[in-house]
Amino acid sequence: MDRKSTELHEQWIKALSKRLNTTVSLNMVGVIGGGSINDAHRIQTTDGIFFAKTNVADAYPGMFEAEARGLEFLQKYSTFEIPVSIATGQEGNTQWILMPHIATTAKKLTYWEDFGRKVAEMHQQTQSTFGLEYDNYLGSLPQLNSPNESWAEFFVHQRLMPQLRMAEDRALANQEMIRYFEKLHKKAASLFPAEPPAALHGDLWTGNFMTNEKGDATIFDPAVYFGHREMDIAMSKLFGGFDKRFYDAYNEMYPLEKGWENRIAVANVYPLMAHVNIFGGSYASQVMGILRKHA
Predict the structure, then answer these.
(1) Given a cut of 90, is residue 33 above it in pLDDT?
(2) N or C: which end of the chain has fewer CB within 10 A?
(3) DSSP conformation class of 87
(4) 258-265 long-range Cβ contacts below 8 angstroms, 24+ apart
């Protein structure tokens, strides 16, 4: 084991010992599947199993501190059992977040219904403005959250415009796309029904939930803010969608306004533009298809 890994592991054990108020010893650290941004680690200790993510601090400054705050946000505004951060830190240019390990089991019979109701409950938590008191990340991209009393203004200036500017800078947005975005901006106020700001997960797709040891859904990897609740619902549909029972239970508890299925595509312009900026390629044509239909 190299010196960097040794020092990193020592930081984790020190953080665990402090949080658990006992002397924790390390048994083994294994690398597990992470993603394009982070490396993931399974940490076996004398006091249980834990989970850590690491990445390059210079590339994503403050990412894990924002993630830790996001997990606390979810714990505060939802009834999900959230794997909140144990500690964050940095060793050289490697930043890390240390979390509980989620042991998984089979889904409860009422898994999807409970999941839908919990998201509906979370969406009923509100505040006076759209946004958040700090910026965070959507995947590997900075997410701006400057508060605004208008959802349309927030959606345009904190969600769509930053992504479009980034795409322009990376030569991923042509003049046709820019023109269609201008049209969409003018229509933004009429696109969504008026609703109070909702506490959002912000990145609620199939990769950001799993089943815990009780057979319930838990959610993680947040991009939280107070926004229009259809943003979460749209995101949940983006890559395959959740079980129909999720949406039925959600609508029983907190019915979506008529026409929500037709607005999903517009809401998903934001995460799709993020994919344009991260991956390029076919996502740009997907965005253009939505803009031509709805702008």
Answers:
(1) no
(2) N
(3) E
(4) 259/193, 260/230, 260/233, 263/191, 263/192, 263/230, 263/234, 264/230, 264/233, 264/234, 264/237, 265/234, 265/290, 265/293, 265/294
Rounded Cα gap, residues 161 and 35, in angstroms = 27
- In angstroms, the CA 116 to CA 207 distance is 16
Give mean pLDDT, residues 3-26: 89
> Which residues are known catalytic residues?
203
H-type helices in the chain, by residue range?
Answer: 3-20, 63-77, 111-123, 151-154, 161-169, 175-191, 230-238, 244-253, 260-267, 269-279, 282-294
Closest C-alpha to 158, from 220, 234, 227: 227
Flag whether pLDDT at 123 surpasses 60: yes
**Contacts for 189 with CB less than 8 Å, ≥ 6 apart:** 150, 152
Q: What is the pLDDT of residues 171-210, one digit of tens each?
A: 999 999 999 999 999 999 999 999 999 999 999 999 999 9
